[in-house]
From TrEMBL:
Domain annotation Dienelactone hydrolase: ranges: 30-228
GO cellular component, one term: cytosol
Main location: cytoplasm
InterPro entries: AB_hydrolase_fold (IPR029058), CMBL (IPR042946), Dienelactn_hydro (IPR002925)
Domain of life: Eukaryota
Protein name: Carboxymethylenebutenolidase homolog
Family: Belongs to the dienelactone hydrolase family.
Subcellular location: Cytoplasm, Cytosol
Source organism of this protein record: Gopherus evgoodei (Goodes thornscrub tortoise)
Classification lineage: Eukaryota, Metazoa, Chordata, Craniata, Vertebrata
GO MF annotation terms: hydrolase activity
């Protein structure tokens, strides 16, 4: 882990063409991007990518940030070689595309973004061997038992998220139902003024007013992982 004298590594430079500090390897039948810390550790975190896939520069950047905090960080290709979503695809076809993608992991700690956040929520309901999960702007909305978490879970949202708005029922209902049914530690935090995907923004895409919240979300994510992993 980083010491008090070495603050959390929020930025690894401009990332327009970010390649990553780790490497690609085969983990059983799945390809994965792996980044290891500078010292030996027995702690690992699985990073579940969003709909844009495991090779997307932003998700590799986040994977490197996790590794910089002392974890072996692994971002598998949960699409199993299938084409990720692209900005050229039509959203009307998204449901059909989603049906054909896998989302399962059985490791120590798990974090996920958007589509990956939904996968984390799912894993926290089904995999008691996992230590913890962090779901960033992704929740399951169509399951009656989605509040019976088996592991400590941290939900991160942006106040101005166009997909999961605090003004809508989603987050308010999540808070109410977790308080009613959940038997493990959980936390829900909404970051003022932030949009969907804010925690992954490139430095050159950050607005000055948003940067403190982006850094806060990343720090909160790592502090949660350190508590349970």
């Amino acid at each position: 882990m980083t010491s008090d004298a070495q603050p959390f590594l929020y930025d690894i430079g401009k990332r327009t063409d970010y390649v990553g500090l780790g490497h690609e390897e085969q983990v059983e039948h799945i390809k994965a991007y792996v980044c290891k810390p500078s010292s030996v550790t027995d702690k690992a975190v699985i990073v579940i990518h969003d709909i844009y896939g495991w090779q997307f520069p932003d998700i590799r950047y986040i994977t490197d940030l996790v590794a910089a905090e002392g974890y072996v960080a692994i971002c598998p290709d949960f699409f199993l070689g299938k084409k990720p979503w692209t900005s050229a695809d039509h959203w009307a076809e998204f449901r059909d595309w989603l049906k054909d993608r896998a989302c399962s992991a059985k490791k120590i700690g798990v974090i996920g973004f958007s589509w990956g956040g939904m996968a984390v929520h799912h894993l926290m309901l089904k995999n008691p061997e996992l230590k913890t999960g962090v779901s960033l702007y992704g929740i399951i909305r169509d399951s009656d038992d989605r509040y019976n978490l088996l592991n400590p879970t941290f939900f991160i949202f942006g106040e101005k998220d166009h997909t999961i708005s605090y003004d809508q029922v989603s987050i308010i209902l999540l808070e109410k139902k977790l308080k009613q049914y959940c038997q493990v530690e959980y936390r829900i935090k909404v970051y003022p003024g932030q949009i969907h995907g804010f925690a992954e923004l490139k430095p050159d895409d950050m607005k000055p007013r948003d940067k403190p919240y982006i850094e806060e979300a990343r720090k909160d994510m790592m502090n949660w992982l350190k508590t349970y992993v």
